[in-house]
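Two proteins follow. First one:
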Amino acid sequence: MVFSVMTQHAAASANVPTRRHRSDLVGVAYLGTIGIVMLVWITGLVWGTIAFFNWLVS
């Protein structure tokens, strides 16, 4: 017994733009910048807390 297989072909191929490496690098640089700023901010808070308690104790 032979069954005919019905296939459906697209009328036009879809042109899906691929991701560019440049946008990936910009994203990594952006996240790196945010990470560095957060690290500096937390370091400043810790330094300020230590300085405050040193001033309070002295």
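Second one, unrelated to the first:
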Amino acid sequence: MDVIYIFSNLEVSISSQIFTMKRIVVTLGAAFSLILLVSAMKSVAVTVDLYAKGIPISVEAPNGSTIRSGLMDGMDMGNGKTLNWEINKGEFSLDVSMQDEDIKQTKSEYVRYSKSVAQKDPSFVRFVESDLNGFLVKLSFNGAIEYDFYHVVEKDKRAIEFSVGLGTSDYSLENIRKIYHAAQTAH
């Protein structure tokens, strides 16, 4: 009887040690995965600073992104010079623009106006995401589904507006959401 008890306790002790070792392996695996994920994210996203280009903002964009002059850069719309830059890398294209004059509306008025314009567009389907600074919108062009977004940040008494740049031809939800989320990193 004592022999069975000893073997039973030995079995419980071994099972407990195996469980503890499995837990250690899982924990180490999770920690290693987290380290790899953080390293991958650092190599994927970099801070792009537009201060030298006249727009007081920085955003996270894919590593290797280039900055080029936007379509509206330098135009005088009667209310100050427009500063307009695009941040591009492959199908990632983020348009950043700012009127070089003090803001005349509140941020919520900018968003409300842009939402109104989007809803009046015959291709408008619905808002996919929306917050105080902007929105992601679903559009349908004769059954072809595309996505777009608008995002605005108020900084240094200026309204800095973000939208999809002209450098992309991929208007899928996945790509546009990636660009929209980059705009949301603006600081």
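SUMMARY FIELD: Residues 2-44 form the longest helix (43 residues). DSSP finds three helices and nine strands in the chain.
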